[in-house]
Description:
Blueprint: H1 18-28, H2 50-53, H3 55-146, H4 150-161, E1 166-167, E2 176-177, H5 179-188, H6 198-201, E3 206-208, E4 218-221, E5 229-235, E6 238-244, E7 248-253, E8 261-264
Helix pairs in contact: 3-4, 4-5
Amino acid sequence: MSPNALIPSHRKPRRPSASSRALRAGVTGGFLTLAVTGATVPANAAEKPVSETQEMPTITTALATSAARSADTAKQVAFNYELQARQDSAVSQADKAAEKDKAEAVKKAKAAAKKKAEKARKAEEAAQARASRSTERSTLSAPSSSSATGSAAAIIAFAEAQIGKSYVLGSSGPSSYDCSGLVQAAYKRVGIDLPRVSQGQSTQGTQVGLDNLQPGDILYWGSAGSAYHVAIYIGDGKFIGAQNSSTGIVERPLDYDMPTGAVRVL
């Protein structure tokens, strides 16, 4: 036996480690638990502060927000460009429409001015023609009036005063007449009432031959009782009548349109 066998040991009994206890407990309980002890972590390798670990997400969020804003700005700019383009197009179309309307208005104004000038020219020509007829009438009226007396002269004077007025079917004056309306109005000046239409006037008074005419006689075209036109004989182989809508009231020689017959009511 060793001399030291009975000397108590100065070493403290070794306590089982936590892993040993866990192992034994696991075996006892019917399952085996293995605890692996990792390497010792240095003291200076402590967990970093939260602020440092969140820095990257914060930067990423800022970049995403900035990108979103940039996208919104780009969309707004694009929308503004599109809106401006539409406005410019609308303005352009409005300008074109205004130019077209203006051109059309100018065209219509020119046409109206041309029409007005043409109307004025025709009115001037008509006035000159009336003046010419008036001069001619003044020249020719003396012989016809000189050969007429009394009621015949008054009838002829009235008829001469109507020369140049319009022919209007059914009109009895004073601005226009048809053929029988003129004859009726002329004879009414001397107090003689005649029928209104040519047929009735062609049967009044006494029938006379065309070779025995006197100023104031009524000339008719057609047959007595069914005449279609009448006029007033003024002497010197002439008559005054409301011929038609083209000539109006005129003075003409007998051979211009030879009548069929004549009646004398004076």
